[in-house]
Amino acid sequence: MDERAIFHTEYGVGISSLHPQTLGVQYLLKQSSQSSSVCLSEDKSLVFVSFKDKAIINTYKLQENESLNKGSNANKTGEIPVLQRLPTPEPLTNLILVKNNYLIASAVKPTRTLIYVYDLSSGSLINTIPMGKVHYNPINKIKFMESKNMVITMADDGRFVLWSLLDLLNSNDDDIKPVSVFNDHQGVGVKDVVFDKSESILLSTGDDGTVCCYNFISNYTPTREEQKPKHTVNHLVLVSKFTFPQAVLQFDIDHAGRFVLCVLKNAEIWELPLIYSLGQGKISNLHSLPMQGNSNKNKVSLYNCTLEKDLDLSNDTLMNLLRRGIISCRLIAKGANTLKISMDSTGIIMGRKKVGQSCLFVDISTSQVIKDIGTPLGLNVRSDTSEGIFIDEVYTLKLNQFLSNKAFISDMTLPNLNKVVENNHKINLLNDPVSTNKVSVVGNDFNKYIKEHVKTGCLFNINETFDEETINVEQTEFITKDYRSDELIEQKNREIEELKQQVARLSKAYNELSEMV
User: Fold this and answer.
1) Could you tell me if residue 437 is inside a domain?
2) Domain of 67?
3) Other C-beta atoms within 10 Å of 128: how many?
4) Does residue 233 contact residue 179 with C-beta atoms inside 8 Å?
5) Would you say the pTM of this structure is higher than 0.85?
């Protein structure tokens, strides 16, 4: 098992192992300067990179691991060439890969905020969703909640929004409405949204210096002012609100929901405990509801976050501080630009925005630097005007994973991405029980998609009297595969026979014209 981090600067994208025993496993993606966002396929074998000023997505195939862990190759940095270049209508950002097949991204231009949804198996542009009625500022990030089939968008207009994946994949709805819109950051930018591994806790942060903690509640009773949700999902309720002395630019949550690490505007990393220790074996759960019963009766708990060094515990105990709404936080590190928590929750990968510094792997408990994973790849920050180093993703990988039979796409080749939305077709509904469409088409089964949908686009206007001569058409047996009623099958067969007769008429007329010429 190997644990790796993907990070990018204005000079390119790098991938590096975090642990000393895999020191030599480092990659540099070629032609990846001015990158905007990065995402991975589920099997960790394919990397997608978008760019700030290029209407293109580069794909890279990660190399097999065994050759980089042996002998003379142990200290070498591998450069991965571009596997494919996929043109897009305009520069895209905030790439995410959903269900290992649907590529979702937003437009870079501030004057035109759109969400693009692609089907990678066919290259189809399933949908483009204008954000003007929901987000009137550019989108900062897009995330996906697997267990709830929800896509989350957040922007500088002070909102983060939940969308149903089924709605985004449905290309027939002209006006797609979100499931929920949240405005708890006082109209200033929402910078990040994270959730724990169980996806039962959701937190958001913004320029107002607050972290809002939400719970998914199943026994929630909507008020008269609230509309009943279109989809059957647990209601998201604000439980706690934490206030910091600085704006929180980015954060990450422990996979078990025990604590949150926050990057403040002054480049400090604070540890916010969600399971708060009160001493003598007592704890307080700050991300749960304070009482049982109907959640309408529960009030939001408000807390002020303060560093433990600034607290005077000679007169107050931790329990008394908590009752007064004061949380004791710990300072982890300084000089941070962005961060991610490692998969085992023992360390953080910290990007820096400072001359001569780079991407560091730091132990959480001791705040000691374990490894510098940016400088060996030559991606360190070189000027005061640099935007710094940004951590894109942390993932674990089995060393023999690429030898498995499971492939992302056959031969690792993707079709070109279309630039026009395919209307009049409901596709890729993922066999969701909420959907009323009985015949769902799985996105990566392209042959089935062709059989079910392409034939509907081949109908011509039929002229009943082209000539008065009797045309003898050779009868051929046609078998159509349809799961609906027998009447529809017969209707399809009749349409096909009429089309064959029409083709025969046109062929005869063409032959007669050829003879006249």
Assistant:
1) no
2) 2-211+218-412
3) 15
4) yes
5) no
Express each pLDDT in 47-85 by its tens digit: 999 998 899 999 999 876 544 444 334 445 688 999 999
Domain count, the chain: 2
Specify whether 10 is located in the same domain as 90.
yes
Tell me how far apart the alpha carbons of residues 373 and 17 are, in angstroms, rounded to a whole number.
8
Residue type, 482: D
Structure tokens at 72: 């003379």
Q: 57 with 193, same domain? A: yes
Is residue 282 assigned to a domain? Answer: yes
- Degrees (nearest 5) of the Cα angle 203, 205, 207? 170
For 7, the enclosing helix (H) or strand (E) is strand 2-9
Whether 48 contacts 39, CB under 8 Å: yes
Last residue of a domain, one of 355, 385, 412: 412
User: H or E element: which one contains 272?
Assistant: strand 268-273
pLDDT of 268: 93
Same domain membership, residue 494 and residue 350: no
Query: How would DSSP label each residue in 104-156?
Result: EEEES-TTS-EEEEEETTTTEEEEEEE-TTT-SS-EEEEEEETTTTEEEEEET
Instruction: Decide: residue 270, CB within 10 A, 0-12 exposed, 13-18 middle, 19+ buried.
Output: buried
What is the rounded distance in angstroms from the CA atom of residue 267 to the CA atom of residue 265?
Answer: 5
Together in a domain, 388 and 271:
yes
List Cα–Cα distances, 414 to 59, 63, 133, 172, 178, in angstroms.
9, 18, 33, 25, 30
